[in-house]
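Internal ticket #5521
Category: modeling
Description: The requester needs a full-assembly model to guide mutagenesis choices. All entity lines are attached below as received. Residue total reported by intake: 478.
Assigned to: D.W.
Attached entities:
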Amino acid sequence: MSERVVPAADRRRRRPTKAGVVLSEELIVETALRLIEEHGADALSVRRLGRALGADPSSLYRYFRHTDDLLLAVADELIGRTLRTWCPTGDWRADLRDLGLRMHAGALAQPRAAVLSSYRVTGRVHEIQAVEAILGVVRGAGFPDPEAVRIYHAFVDQCLAFGALDSASIAMPKTARAADADVWRATYARLPAATHPHIAATARHLVADMPRSSYPAALDLLLSAAAARLAEIRAGEEG
Amino acid sequence: MSERVVPAADRRRRRPTKAGVVLSEELIVETALRLIEEHGADALSVRRLGRALGADPSSLYRYFRHTDDLLLAVADELIGRTLRTWCPTGDWRADLRDLGLRMHAGALAQPRAAVLSSYRVTGRVHEIQAVEAILGVVRGAGFPDPEAVRIYHAFVDQCLAFGALDSASIAMPKTARAADADVWRATYARLPAATHPHIAATARHLVADMPRSSYPAALDLLLSAAAARLAEIRAGEEG
DNA sequence: TTAACAGGTCAACGATGTTGTCATAAGGTG
DNA sequence: CACCTTATGACAACATCGTTGACCTGTTAA
């Protein structure tokens, strides 16, 4: 085993499946994405994917070494799609905010791929494009290189981390989600001020705020910290 | 089924396992934590946990409805342990920073529990303690209630999200991790400036920065944004 | 035309979470 | 002390999962 996978470029023989399908890395990734869109993230398994393609599950191992590799390819395709819908305006802060929200939404649709791509480096085309684009925005804003990289890193990781998190929440059966939201009403909002003064004082806001994603707020905090830092840097240069 | 689980308080009959162990929610959670500490997060499965306890796996379903419930209990225990090592000083920013780093480190040790507890509400004792404590710090700093909740929410979620992420990275076999780190050297650092100017310009910093966690940086950005906001609020009150 | 071999298929392995059923010992009651 | 109820542990089974080794066949290059 271990070297069953042939690099995409070297593939010659296009032998059709029993069901008549001609496999390819592209087709597999597309089908995987379709599967997830239609039936949720948990619907993606090697076996189901094989079934959806009309091929034996083990065939996929001729294209991907293991599931992780497949998920990384899916993630990269997703990055590409997100990037294509993004039109930077030249205002760094607005551009980053927009991209962050888009990538977060994209990750929402792809929890497992999002988790993977957040701590793995694919080195694939779309990932590289994204790195180049974001670094361009940050450097264009005026951050010196070491700080630009730090901000790039925090920005990307924050986006992917929240994406993975929020998508897990969305994937819950909605009865369970409702039950969770209710804990804030039924448990937290009922705590007596005597023992839990801070929770009691803010109960109303907790009930309203906690069931929603905090990503937009976290993103804005990150961006405004970056903006403040940029102002410092500019002041330092002038003075 | 569905109602095989008896609330901890109502338990009477302490019938020992074949192996002579007397089960309890407490013992199960402790054993789960030990299992993870000793053999990594992936070592935690119902079956392995049963084996470690000297009990049939299915017995655990008398104590937890499903694996998620067990993980939530583990997460809550972990929150408790973390909280106990934290001694707030009164300086809100330093205290939050310290707690953030501690909780992140705790989550690192418990990836699966961390993910779960980040998007679920347990309503268990330690979680409540943590909410009360953090809200106390934020409100004590002078944030008005709605904003205090927003900052609390972003702070906690970011901490757990990065914790889950970074722990996934740590859990990788170290050969794979080295390979990933090498992508920055072998792929990114080799991209020509002609096609990828920003990556080329910052390659040195990318290689150094990307394999590390960006959580401390992200945390500092969040805290400094919060500090700036607080300054604004104070100025507004005075003016 | 043929021979090599890429690539599809089959069957199997061991692992997972979960549940329906059964057996038994604990503990309240008389 | 004995009895009955029932809480709780054990067993066996199910469906699912990723993965691999061996096999077989159609494509393609010579």
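Resolution: model delivered.
Comment from assignee: Residues 1, 4, 12-16, 45-47, 57-58, 61, 66-67 of chain A lie near DNA strand D (CB under 10 Å from a C1').
Ticket closed.
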